[in-house]
Amino acid sequence: MAFRAAVITFPGSNCDRDMAVAIERVSGTAPIRVWHGDAHLPEDLDFIALPGGFSYGDYLRSGAMAANSPIMQSVKRRAERGVPVLGVCNGFQVLTEAGLLPGALMRNASQNFICRTVALKVENDRSLFTSGYAAGQTIDIPVAHHDGNYFADDETLDMLEGEGRVAFRYVENCNGSQRDIAGVLNAEGNVLGMMPHPERAVEQAHGGTDGLALFENAIKTLVSA
């Protein structure tokens, strides 16, 4: 059976094509493009991606309006059934606002938009998304955000640490995120939210391929399951 992925597009998404290209590059199959106003996702999906951008112009809070889009109820149901969901940048913000991941993404500590390649330390190498890396490995992934400062209360942070749900940390904290957190997993390990853009690091011509292993491992694992 062919690999079936979906990329959700909200008004203001601007990385949906990048995400679709990365998925197709690894899987050989173009993902289904789903509009935020659709009420239902296609059946038999293997993978769902929420891309970066500025959904609804980042009004209210980044990701807050997108989290209440009709399609997100379907995304939540699929995630609860174990379908892998990847949220990058604005997608990470949407996942926190929708309650699929804990915490919140606030304005960068510098109050400036940050757009550059940063070094990440791989903290968890046991998830579907991260097992293509080694724990402690440093990878270079681009960031591009104004609201990437990860915040959660101490109890939540301790829980994430204790359960091994911190996926990536910034080697040098670029936005003020608590405990240098750049990406987190849900308790079941099938939902990952991260601010850096792995889909922008799958072509050497774009500056590096350190994001490729995330897609390769997830997709190959799902295809062989």
UniProtKB/TrEMBL annotation:
<feature type="active site" description="Nucleophile">
    <location>
        <position position="89"/>
    </location>
</feature>
<comment type="function">
    <text>Part of the phosphoribosylformylglycinamidine synthase complex involved in the purines biosynthetic pathway. Catalyzes the ATP-dependent conversion of formylglycinamide ribonucleotide (FGAR) and glutamine to yield formylglycinamidine ribonucleotide (FGAM) and glutamate. The FGAM synthase complex is composed of three subunits. PurQ produces an ammonia molecule by converting glutamine to glutamate. PurL transfers the ammonia molecule to FGAR to form FGAM in an ATP-dependent manner.</text>
</comment>
<feature type="active site">
    <location>
        <position position="197"/>
    </location>
</feature>
<keyword id="KW-0547">Nucleotide-binding</keyword>
<keyword id="KW-0315">Glutamine amidotransferase</keyword>
<keyword id="KW-0067">ATP-binding</keyword>
<comment type="subunit">
    <text>Part of the FGAM synthase complex composed of 1 PurL, 1 PurQ and 2 PurS subunits.</text>
</comment>
<keyword id="KW-0963">Cytoplasm</keyword>
<keyword id="KW-0378">Hydrolase</keyword>
<comment type="pathway">
    <text>Purine metabolism; IMP biosynthesis via de novo pathway; 5-amino-1-(5-phospho-D-ribosyl)imidazole from N(2)-formyl-N(1)-(5-phospho-D-ribosyl)glycinamide: step 1/2.</text>
</comment>
<feature type="active site">
    <location>
        <position position="199"/>
    </location>
</feature>
<dbReference type="Pfam" id="PF13507">
    <property type="entry name" value="GATase_5"/>
</dbReference>
<protein>
    <recommendedName>
        <fullName>Phosphoribosylformylglycinamidine synthase subunit PurQ</fullName>
        <ecNumber>6.3.5.3</ecNumber>
        <ecNumber>3.5.1.2</ecNumber>
    </recommendedName>
</protein>
<dbReference type="InterPro" id="IPR029062">
    <property type="entry name" value="Class_I_gatase-like"/>
</dbReference>
<keyword id="KW-0436">Ligase</keyword>
<keyword id="KW-0658">Purine biosynthesis</keyword>
<dbReference type="InterPro" id="IPR010075">
    <property type="entry name" value="PRibForGlyAmidine_synth_PurQ"/>
</dbReference>
